[in-house]
């Protein structure tokens, strides 16, 4: 399943930007997926949902936006830092 490898790469990008010690604080991952990116959107969302529900992410969610073209990128990370 191609979408699982894409989802795993997304999580690798998250780890690179947030670090491995604070991954439990990631609450949302934003993505743009183009109509021509060669990705089945429903499958990608399912794979991300399964992976983000497990440790070390523990219930983070994916916010996937469909766009024109062949774009496939992480657009933002929402991180809870414990501050009010």
List keywords for this structure.
about 80 residues; alpha+beta; 3-stranded mixed sheet; 2 helices
Helix content: 25-40%
Strand order of the largest sheet: 2-1-3
Strand residues, percent: 25-35%
Mean pLDDT: 89
Strand tally is 3
Overall SS class: alpha+beta
Helix/strand order = HEHEE
General form = globular
Largest sheet: 3 strands, mixed
Please give the count of helices: 2
Low-confidence parts, pLDDT < 50 over ≥5 residues?
A: none
Distance between the termini: 41 Å
Q: What is the radius of gyration?
A: 13 Å
If you had to describe this structure to a student in words, what would you say it looks like?
With 84 residues, the protein is of the alpha+beta class. 36% of the residues lie in helices and 29% in strands. Strand 1, helix 2 (41-53) and strand 2 (61-67) form a beta-alpha-beta unit. Helix 1 packs across helix 2 (41-53).
What would you say about this model in short?
The protein has two helices and three strands.
Question: What is the topology?
Answer:
Layout lengths: L1 H17 L7 E9 L6 H13 L7 E7 L4 E8 L5
Parallel strand pairs: 1-2
Antiparallel strand pairs: 1-3
